[in-house]
Amino acid sequence: MLNKKAIIKIIPKPLLNLYHYCLAFFFAARYNFPSRKIVTIGITGTKGKTSVSYLIYYLLTKLNFKVALSSSDFLYIGEELLEKNNRLTMPGRGFLHWFLKKAVDNNCDIAIIEVTSEGLIQHRHAFIDFDIAVFLGLHPEHIEQHGSYEAYRNAKGKLFYALEKSFRKLRRDSKRRKKLKGIDVKKTIIVNLDDFEADYFLSFKAEQKITFSLETQQSFSKFHLMPTKYKINQKGIEFILEDKKFVASHLFGKSSIYNVLASFSVLKALDLPLAGLDGYLKDFHNIPGRFDIIQSKSFKVIIDYAHTPHSIEELYSTILKLFKPKRLLCLIGSAGGLRDKWKRPVIGEIAARYCHYIVISNEDPCDEDPLTIMEAIELGAKRYLAEFGVEKPIEIIPDRKEAIYKLVQTATKGDVIVTIGKGAEPSITFNDQEIPWNEKEVVLEAIKSKTKSKAYSKISTKTS
Fold it and tell me: Which of 189, 198, 344, 371 has the CB geometry, 3.0–4.6 Å to 376, for a possible disulfide?
């Protein structure tokens, strides 16, 4: 009997596209085109979508707007946190239009949606009228699924084309001109100017374009957010923008500065002042599973969602610079489902370059042989070590809980353990089965277990 994936493969692509498009229209019509009644923001990019989406949600809420949020980890209607029934970053068409209708019915001012390349090629964005489209950056990912890097980039571009063609609810010459609590909102493109693909995403039409960067100067857009100075340390990040010092004490690394700049750019698009936001940022706690630090008595554990070679390397580099650990102990893995097989040995190579002890474990093997994935990562690590004549311990421990316990038991004073790939995800996918998972809980259990065994050891020694 054919499964869903097999059926999809035999359906002609044009017919499949038409099916997705018609389905989107059906749900949009069923819920009476809800995005026409609410300011809608789409966030896309290879990484940072969840962090930026949640940060925008947080800041707008602090500014007394009622906001709806659909992201990888969170589903909010105002302050109400709804339960997510699946792990899709960008849910299906029926769900998204239902979500927007619920946001409208609950008098939300703004809806924020994480937008993925897969969702875009399946027309999950169709008949959603966006007002602001944000591009955070692009790195090789999902290449096997899209066929090429260019196809992956072009899939992301569909969000900006959708913005260009969206229902003109904000037209200047229209009596229906929508206002956000007395503030006019223009169709806006926001782009990370430091990214190699910035020009492509800026080529789409919009009423206004806003850019942000740390390195690249610009002269064409009305608003460009670029700190004059910035600092990254163990307390977080600091930077000076528009002659005002902003501090985000719970955010770490260079990527966090980009995330804050992207969030501020959205506030600029809504014509909201940036002055006074530093107070809110000081109180902002990092998103669960994103550079989530657990401090034991003698060592640290950092849980992060990093899953692309670029984000993993940036994470390791940041940790080494900020905390200068005696050793970096790393739990690594990669997703299955025949996705991005090319990056598995690359992840192994990066771990071999930065880590002192490496444990390879399951992340989300899906319907692929887990050992095949782990051995590909191991091959990359061993190949790098052999090339440079370096020896480092590498282990394959398929059971992720066992792998974490092993790392915690191995850790000594001054070490930092880093787990990547899962973050705050609530499950591990094996075939079609979702196994409940909570990385932070397992880490805390492992630390507690180590503390108990140490205490027992001391008692036994004294007794004897």
Answer: 344
Going by C-alpha positions, the residue among 156, 228, 236 that lies closest to residue 189 is 156
d(CA 28, CA 177): 21
Quote the longest CA-to-CA distance of the chain: 88
Q: Which domains does the chain have, with CATH numbers?
A: 8-282 (3.40.1190.10), 292-455 (3.90.190.20)
CA 385 to chain centre: 30
List C-alpha distances in Å: 119 to 38, 92, 96, 158: 21, 8, 11, 10
Kindly give, in sequence order, each residue whose CB lies less than 8 Å from that of residue 216, ignoring residues fewer than 6 positions away. 193, 194, 198, 226
198 CB-near residues (< 8 Å, 6+ apart): 135, 191, 192, 211, 216
Please list the ranges in the chain whose pLDDT falls under 70: 1-18, 20, 84-93, 140-147, 168-183, 219-221, 243, 248-249, 454-464
Long-range contacts for 56-62 (Cβ within 8 Å, ≥24 apart)? 56/112, 56/263, 56/266, 56/267, 57/112, 58/280, 58/284, 59/263, 59/267, 59/277, 59/280, 60/109, 60/110, 60/267, 62/280
Contact 378, 413 (CB under 8 A): no
CB atoms within 10 A of CB 86: 10
The amino acid that residue 75 corresponds to is L
pLDDT in tens, 252-267: 889 999 999 999 999 9
Give the sheet arrangement for strand 394-396, strand by strand. 292-295, 300-303, 416-419, 328-332, 357-360, 394-396
Closest CA to 171 of 32, 36, 34: 36
Beta bridge mates, 40 = 111
What is the C-alpha to C-alpha distance for residues 68 and 79, in angstroms, rounded to an integer?
8
* Residues ≥6 apart with Cβ < 8 Å to 83: 75
Query: What is the phi/psi pair of residue 103, to 5°?
Result: -65, -45
Residue tagged 């163990």 (tokens) = 234
SS3 state at 38: coil
User: What is d(CA 257, CA 301) in angstroms, rounded to the nearest whole number?
Assistant: 22
